[in-house]
């Protein structure tokens, strides 16, 4: 004889680590005291013995199959409540109890051993499957866990072991019913035992103490009313004598509303306890020949009781688990909403909740109210268009369209105004989330007005410093620039005198006059070019990026500095690779960078002997598809630890320098998506390199 049930909630939290028997991993080894294992084994032995005695008392002869066989269910519950390391203790403890009660009842020894194998095999198989799929704590508040329990504890394990159990009966020749009928009787017997006993035992052991501690006295009336009502109706239905057979079907369902009440309101302990009470009253009434299940033969009554209790028990357990999961989800949602509301109200950034369908404001926090000057009551149910918050109403439409298309937007910059008309630059971040089952747009507004103002001021200051740097740099070149202008102006003056002399002669040499006029025009253009470059460098006009030839930048820088190079007796070498790609940028700013590097190189070679002042300017294409300009000198050089510092403001190696030239160069190059760096030459001096991205053709 055997019967067994499995319960997902059957492990004590104090006995297991959280990782024990979780998912598909093998159970972890858990430290268990020998005294605990011994106490558990003694308890299982006593329970098994008493359960077997009850099972024999519920056996309808001549078939050796009990109406309800508790030992297997009790062993299964014990396995689910204890660590796997002591399972062998429990099975061993069940053996003497099994032998005592079976031999005492006159069962043949071979049959006793066979039943022990089938009983323990069913309990071990069911417990192992449940723990494997449900983890270390099988919870009857989980729909998945209840389903696992019903599948393996109530269905699969009893079904498979029934064939083995009845086979032992047939081999021992103990029983006269055919094989199929005995399998059916045995299966329903053990399935009912598992359904009635395991949930009650496991929930009371794992949840009972906490349930009673957490139950306020004022709320104890409901469980008490449930228990009293169930007892009264169960006695009325299952203990009634002389009941009319026509009233039986209707009366059987009188206790069911109480189970439904327990499933919806009271939870696993009430449902499992109620199911156990109904089982006890139904079985007890049938044994005493009273109640609705006493009218047929013993076998028919047993099958009717089993089917009735299984049919009402399985849906109630599933309903209870579904309600518990829904309640947990509702509680979690409420807790989440409370946390969200707390974060929303206290957030230091302005936040608003918007209906993404129509753009109406549903709520705003205090920081939003203080930023825009509107009271919360003024804005609820209105759109930002109605409040006229956006400077350009099209920005609002673009923001909402972007949110609806992508589900969220980050750092959407717009211009907004508050209630008083004060303009603000705001970065909007929006995400659509589910709140209470509805899609809501959460908008966080970050005021960056001061930051943008500071950025504009910093840009203007950099522009002014760069302009001053250009003026200082051109001041250093003033002598050379004066010489540059003197040359064409002097030539123009000489050609003018020559023209006057030529006109005084008769006849006028027209060819020579044309040549003189051509020279005057060329020298005028040359002087105009010098003046134009000076004005462009000094004016500090807004950058005008355009496509620039690399060779053009080198020529422009050398054109402005060639007289200074000649006067300082600097020998110049220019190496510009052919077919260089163009670059994109502001030519005046990039000329300033190269000119600054050339002047710095000349200053670094002031202490050199005139014949050793050598300067090289190179332009080549790199493997990274960029154009690299290099200015190489033979000057005093810079210490290794100063190579990066020279690009910082006010760091200079010149006696009279301000330390602003190279930082400005770096700022200009970075704005053109390039980079500038310095290296020490092995033969002395420095090399300054500027890399600019090449234009793709």
Please characterize this protein's 3D structure.
The protein is of the alpha+beta class. The protein contains 21 helices and 12 strands. The chain has helices at residues 34-57, 70-81, 87-104, 109-134, 143-172, 179-213, 221-238, 248-252, 256-266, 268-287, 298-346, 366-372, 376-379, 384-387, 393-406, 449-476, 478-504, 510-539, 550-567, 587-604, 661-671, and strands spanning 351-354, 361-364, 408-417, 423-435, 438-447, 546-548, 571-576, 583-585, 614-621, 626-632, 675-680, 686-693. A 5-stranded antiparallel β-sheet has the order 2-1-5-4-3, with helices on both faces. It has a 5-stranded mixed β-sheet with strand order 7-9-10-12-11, with helices on one face. A hairpin with a 2-residue loop joins strand 4 and strand 5 (438-447). Helix 1 (34-57) runs antiparallel to helix 2, helix 2 (70-81) packs parallel to helix 4 (109-134) and helix 2 (70-81) packs across helix 6 (179-213). The longest helix is centred in the middle third of the chain and has 49 residues, at 298-346. The protein is elongated. Mean pLDDT is 78; it is low at 1-30.
